[in-house]
Amino acid sequence: MQKKLLTLVLMLIAAINTFAYDFESNGIYYEILSKEKHTCTVTNQSDTSGKKYAGNLVIPSTVQDSDGVDYTVSAISDYAFQDCVKLQNVVLPNTIQRVGYRAFSGCVLLESIVLPQSVITLGSCSFYGCISLKSIDFGSIEIIDGFCLAGCSSIEKLVIPNTVTEIVHDAFSGCSSLSNITFQSGHKKLYLSDYNNDGPLFAECSLDSVFIGRNLTIKTDCSPFSKSKMLRSVYVSDSVTYIGKYCFRDCENLEHVYGMNKVDSIGDHSFVGTKIKKFCAPSLRTFGEYGYAFDKCQNLEEIDLGKIEDVTDYHIGDCPNLRNIYIGTELRKIGSTWFFEKFRGKLYIFSDKLSEVYYKEAYDYTYTKYGQTFTRHYPAEYGIPSTVEAVYVANPERYQSLLGKFYNVKPMLAFKESVVEYSGKTPELTFVNNVDGYDVTFDKSTTPKDAGTYKTNLDVIFSNHDWNVSVAIPCSYTITKAPLSIIPNNIKRNYGEENPELSCTYIGFKNKETYEVLEKVPNVYTIATSSSDAGTYPIYCSDAEAKNYTIDYKQGVLTINKAKQEITWEQDFANAEIGEVIELTATSNSGLSVKYRSTDLSTVMISSQGGKQYACILKAGTAVLTAYQNGDTNYEEADEVNKIINIQNTGIEAINNGKEKITVENGSITISQIKENEIISVTNLSGKTMFVIHAEAEQILKTPTLAKGIYILSIGSKNYKVAIP
Questions:
Q1: 567-647 adopts what CATH topology?
Q2: Residue 390 burial by CB count (10 A; 0-12/13-18/19+): exposed, middle or buried?
Q3: Which tens digit of pLDDT belongs to each residue from 248-303?
Q4: Which of 78, 72, 71 is nearest to 99 (CA)?
Q5: Other beta carbons less than 10 A from residue 689's beta carbon
Q6: Is the pLDDT of residue 2 over 70?
Q7: I need a labelling partner for 613 at 20 to 30 A (CA). Which of 97, 115, 457, 652 fits?
Q8: pLDDT tens string 510-550
Q9: How is the chain split into domains, by residue range?
């Protein structure tokens, strides 16, 4: 480091400390870069003036010279603000593309700076010695040159944008307060270098945490974070696919490395001498050329090697507290020398692809040197040393033969034979988990859950907070059918209607299943038809098929209610007359015969003849005729329908035409004013003659007493209806 500082001092002494400017505007000095392109750069005053920039300064994007020519301010020249010890703040325009060598060096009061997105190049030593600088926004620069922030002892946090492609040696030399640095996520590689490998890039910083958001390409044998003695945590984004060799070598307080989800390669000696307790890289496939990535990790207890395919060449190193090693699903080969020291913990192999375990038998090697014969004994070497407590694998039978001399092979997880009832879910199987630090679940997409007896390999997922791995584990178990009750739904209808659609209710389906899981839905039926009498009838179901359920059938009930009946009676009795016999024509929708009754039989009498019913108007007065139907087995009693008959006639003269006088009294008909030789007869409605006489002369005739009813009185060619009340 002293050599580097001496070199820098000599560079500064050799610098020609002269400045030139072409014009001045508002206290800012400019040098014309191109008259054709009308560009200029901010520069310093002549060294003879003794003036320095101070206070708050705003650099315009365009400026006019003394001739009124407009120029675009495109750069900050070398030394432009060097040693401006009273400069407090500078605002740069978005036209600036370059910040020159030592442009702001020695600005001891400058606390913050924002580089516009237009800035591409940031010269070396550009902020050298800005001891008050606390924050810098790098904008979209591509290169952070050597000694750029050297001596900026107040900076605590830095964000390196994803546009940066290179950080040159000593860029952060002397940033003694820098505790946190973030390399923004991106796909561009970031090249890190050091000066003749003379020391780590961040050796003089106080880094406590680092966020790595993209791949860091490290100069050969360069170790950028090496010896960062205060570094405790490293965060790695999913954009990072490899960790370069020596990257965190001898970071003696590094305890936590988070992320590593997409890292597939770790370089040699990358974590040597750290305090990492647990390491997990679920996508890891290669371990470096020479290994020793975790050598001398005294606190390392667990290491998860992800998808590594080949473990050889002292990969682990001397880790005395290492107790658990996990290797993922892609392991194919185990070499004989991958344990630097004898590992005395548990080895977990998730892979079923392991095909080669290297064994080196013991032998004696004889050679001659200086005319003398020597013999060297080489002991046997095993891919897995006998000091290992146990090796846990998915299929112990296969690995027992493959691992040969290693005797202590145990199942990663052992299922106990069991009988469980179908649940529609992954069955709750009893097992013993021998994998420390991993939770166990079943892959529901592959685990049989239908009723049956299984002897199969189940996909078991071993999970920790870093990753999941699926392994096929032998398993035997039986799933019995679950009970299912099928009950026809009770229904009701009226007599004469068709049966409604029959359905049923299911009790016992698991995991929100429905009848749709049945291989065959039940047949639901009843013996009742539309013509069945009112009453109750059983509903049956049968013939359902279900692979996961034992079916119990129940009975439902069909209730046939009496149908309603309605009487229709449209007759009008407004013109009824005494002596009139009227056929009654009320009907019921049931087809049952309608019956009738009268409230006053002396006025209107009900009679039946030939299956028909009649209303007989006997005398003047008012009566209410009622049509009714009392129902039967299948029909309810009908609502009664009433008709009022009001007879206004006071005598029978209305039908006599004023010639014969006919009166009724005490059941006898009296006829007077009879013409000579008239034949007079009385018959009932059935045609039976009740009285007949031939009048020889005008006389008064009186019939015998007649029963109540309507009679036909014939006088010659004229007929009269006569009512006997």
A1: Immunoglobulin-like (2.60.40)
A2: middle
A3: 988 999 999 999 999 999 988 889 899 999 999 989 998 777 777 888 899 999 99
A4: 78
A5: 11
A6: no
A7: 652
A8: 999 999 999 999 999 999 999 999 999 999 999 999 999 99
A9: 413-480, 488-552, 567-647, 656-724
Residue 433's CB is within 10 A of a number of other CB atoms, namely 14
Place of tokens 């990753």: 467
According to CATH, what is the number of the domain 656-724? 2.60.40.3080
The set of residues, in sequence order, having a beta carbon less than 8 Å from that of 680 and lying 6+ positions away, is 671, 674, 691, 692, 693, 694, 695, 701, 713, 714, 715
Give CA separation, 640 vs 169, 365, 572, 582, 608, in Å.
114, 127, 17, 20, 20
pLDDT grade, residue 345 (50/70/90)? confident
**Residue type present at position 42:** V
* Closest residue by Cα to residue 593 from 605, 601, 585, 604: 585
Q: Is 8 left (phi over 0), alpha (psi -120 to 50) or beta?
A: alpha
Task: Evaluate whether 42 touches 59 at the Cβ level (below 8 Å).
Answer: yes
| The domains spanning 567-647 and 656-724 adopt the same CATH topology | yes
Radius of gyration of the chain (CA): 58
Residue 420 CB burial class (10 angstroms; 0-12, 13-18, ≥19): middle
| Burial bucket for residue 421 (CB in 10 Å: 0-12, 13-18, 19+) | middle
- Give one DSSP letter per residue of 566-577, joined into a string: -EE-----TT--
Measured from the Cβ of residue 312, the count of other Cβ atoms closer than 10 Å reads 15
Give me 229's structure tokens. 């003695």
Kindly state the tokens that stand for 430: 């009893």
Bridge pairing between strands 112-114 and 135-137: parallel
